[in-house]
């Protein structure tokens, strides 16, 4: 049957978590884009809505309890170095409780809150797309 993202385009999701004008980013341990800074997110399971998957992944990866979210953008990542192809629905939230943690140290090595004008490098492709979309969203500019 094959693996999503490797043998055929995978369907993923992401969530930009915003607090005090900063976004939460984690550093990836594994491919795709190992060592890159990333918003929380992952694969959408069969018969799971992407918005629910984004909240599930965020809660699993950060330990936060996620409230309401809204659609932010769509991102397509063709990652030649890792031979992976993903299409991801990305959402944004300011509605959450708790403090972020490293709940999956085998997948994510560190985290921090970063302002949009001082993002760490390198950024994953879908994180760069999400940051651009969030800048436009906050300026009231259509995508």
Automatic annotation (TrEMBL):
<dbReference type="InterPro" id="IPR000086">
    <property type="entry name" value="NUDIX_hydrolase_dom"/>
</dbReference>
<dbReference type="InterPro" id="IPR020084">
    <property type="entry name" value="NUDIX_hydrolase_CS"/>
</dbReference>
<protein>
    <submittedName>
        <fullName>NUDIX domain-containing protein</fullName>
    </submittedName>
</protein>
<feature type="domain" description="Nudix hydrolase">
    <location>
        <begin position="6"/>
        <end position="136"/>
    </location>
</feature>
<dbReference type="InterPro" id="IPR015797">
    <property type="entry name" value="NUDIX_hydrolase-like_dom_sf"/>
</dbReference>
<keyword id="KW-0378">Hydrolase</keyword>
<dbReference type="Pfam" id="PF00293">
    <property type="entry name" value="NUDIX"/>
</dbReference>
């Amino acid at each position: 049957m094959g693996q999503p993202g490797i043998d055929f385009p995978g369907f993923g999701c992401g969530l930009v978590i915003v607090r005090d004008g900063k976004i939460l980013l984690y550093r990836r341990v594994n491919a795709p884009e190992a060592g890159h800074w990333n918003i929380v997110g992952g694969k959408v399971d069969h018969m799971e809505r992407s918005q629910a998957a984004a909240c599930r992944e965020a809660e699993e990866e950060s330990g936060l309890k996620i409230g309401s979210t809204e659609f932010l953008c769509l991102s397509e990542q063709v990652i030649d170095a890792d031979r992976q192809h993903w299409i991801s629905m990305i959402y944004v939230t300011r509605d959450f409780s708790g403090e972020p943690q490293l709940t999956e140290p085998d997948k994510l090595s560190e985290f921090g809150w970063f302002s949009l004008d001082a993002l760490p490098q390198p950024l994953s492709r879908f994180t760069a797309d999400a940051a651009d979309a969030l800048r436009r969203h906050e300026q009231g500019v259509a995508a």
